[in-house]
């Protein structure tokens, strides 16, 4: 076999591999004969690498379940067919508890189709003219074990709800705009209840056709984003016109105590580096200030703990003519409206102890609406895909706690997210 034959064989193999990657993946979860072109998946079909799909654990019809399918890195439209013989209420989350569909109700005997767009990624950083190849420096064991579903080459879907009724799913690759997230534990995909972040809730507020790619991680700063190559990973995956939301501050405060920086020095410089790099790759950088912690003064007003970092973030946005979402300011009327005691309902309470930094599902859901509204008010192109009825959230009029009904995920943890140890 000469070199030309070898080259032709390699090219044909590459085309075949790409065709396989681009081919829709269709799965039928009903008990009867599967639809033409669909692969039948029984409740006892466990994930196996040789098969490339299956449930992560044994399933029951009335319990949440995790279904995984091998996929290359990229964005995908997932169309689910819901419903069946009995009434159903279905919530679907992707990867690590990213809320995609919330409490979709189907009447007995009726079916309904819904589509959402998801992002799948691996740690690999593709080499280019502007970036060295390599990989994100993941934190072990947190990202390699507890958060492995965020980085493996497959999509994992959580079927949850009062009576989840997933009949079929159709997964197809899509060239869609992407909103990338960089930030700390208040943004990152938290692996277990009772912790949650606004980054996990944000996909729920967008229509299909745009993907949310959450690259935030617990305990991190703008400096970590550079050193662990999270920014490089985003740049390697980003297409011109994509949006990057950045929110750091909680952990950057530790640099003052360590004598390694401050809000109006190193923090500002590191924001500038991020903005410049994103723009150089054709992206749209958006700076967010950090939401406040739960702390009140004697008059029931929020006692600021991150105001210097919020002001520095605003200064950077003004200086660089960058869209700015002041989550610090938006979080205050939210906490104050709930009040000193009732505001506990927005924060994680592992083993009954209130974590005054990290939110639960309810709190994260409210903050995500603030971010979505900020995107619309800043005139971002990505706001075009906001779901109907969202994008005008008033933090002084939050959703009633009693009416909040996003079902918790099965996985729980008492391990506090990394970072911010001094401000619990």
From TrEMBL:
Biased composition annotated in UniProt, kind: Basic and acidic residues: 413-424
Pfam families to which the protein is assigned, alphabetical: Lipase_GDSL_2
Domain (SGNH hydrolase-type esterase): residue spans on this chain: 181-331
Entry-linked CDD domains: Rhamnogalacturan_acetylesterase_like
Keywords, in A-Z order: Hydrolase, Signal
Segments of this protein annotated with the region Disordered: 400-424
Molecular function via GO: hydrolase activity, acting on ester bonds
Position of the signal peptide: 1-21
Family, per entry: Belongs to the 'GDSL' lipolytic enzyme family.
Protein name: SGNH hydrolase-type esterase domain-containing protein
């Amino acid at each position: 076999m000469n070199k030309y034959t070898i080259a032709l064989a390699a090219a044909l193999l590459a085309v075949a591999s790409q065709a396989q990657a681009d081919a829709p993946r269709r799965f039928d979860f009903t008990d009867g004969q599967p639809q033409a072109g669909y692969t039948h998946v029984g409740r006892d079909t466990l994930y196996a690498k040789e098969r490339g799909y299956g449930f992560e654990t044994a399933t029951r019809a009335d319990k949440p379940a995790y279904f995984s399918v091998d996929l290359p890195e990229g964005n995908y439209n997932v169309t689910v067919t819901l419903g069946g013989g009995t009434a159903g209420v279905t919530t679907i989350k992707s990867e690590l508890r990213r809320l995609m569909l919330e409490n979709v109700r189907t009447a007995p005997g009726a079916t309904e189709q819904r589509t959402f767009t998801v992002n799948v990624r691996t740690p690999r950083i593709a080499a280019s003219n502007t970036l060295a190849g390599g990989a994100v420096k993941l934190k072990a064991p947190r990202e390699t074990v507890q958060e492995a579903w965020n980085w493996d080459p497959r999509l994992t879907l959580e079927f949850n709800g009062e009576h989840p009724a997933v009949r079929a799913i159709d997964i197809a690759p899509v060239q869609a705009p992407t909103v990338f997230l960089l930030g700390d534990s208040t943004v990152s995909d938290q692996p277990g209840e009772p912790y949650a972040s606004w980054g996990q809730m944000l996909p729920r507020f967008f229509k299909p056709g745009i993907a949310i790619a959450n690259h935030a991680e617990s305990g991190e700063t703008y400096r970590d984003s550079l050193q662990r190559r999270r920014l490089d990973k985003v740049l390697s995956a980003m297409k011109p016109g994509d949006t990057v939301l950045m929110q750091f501050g909680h952990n950057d405060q530790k640099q003052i105590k360590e004598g390694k920086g401050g809000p109006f020095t190193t923090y500002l410089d590191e924001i500038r580096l991020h903005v410049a790099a994103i723009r150089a790759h054709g992206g749209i950088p958006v700076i967010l200030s950090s939401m406040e912690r739960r702390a009140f003064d004697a008059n029931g007003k929020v006692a600021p703990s991150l105001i210097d970092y919020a002001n520095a973030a605003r200064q950077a946005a003004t200086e660089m003519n960058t869209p700015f979402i002041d989550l610090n300011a938006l979080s205050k009327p939210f906490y104050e409206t709930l009040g000193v005691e009732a505001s506990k309902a927005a924060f994680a309470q592992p083993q009954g102890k209130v974590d005054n930094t990290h939110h639960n599902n309810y709190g994260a859901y409210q903050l995500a609406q603030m971010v979505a509204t900020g995107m619309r008010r800043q005139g971002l192109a990505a706001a075009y895909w906001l779901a109907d009825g969202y994008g005008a959230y008033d933090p002084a009029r939050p959703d009633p706690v009693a009416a909040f009904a996003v079902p918790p995920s099965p996985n729980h943890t008492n391990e506090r997210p990394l970072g911010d140890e001094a401000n619990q």
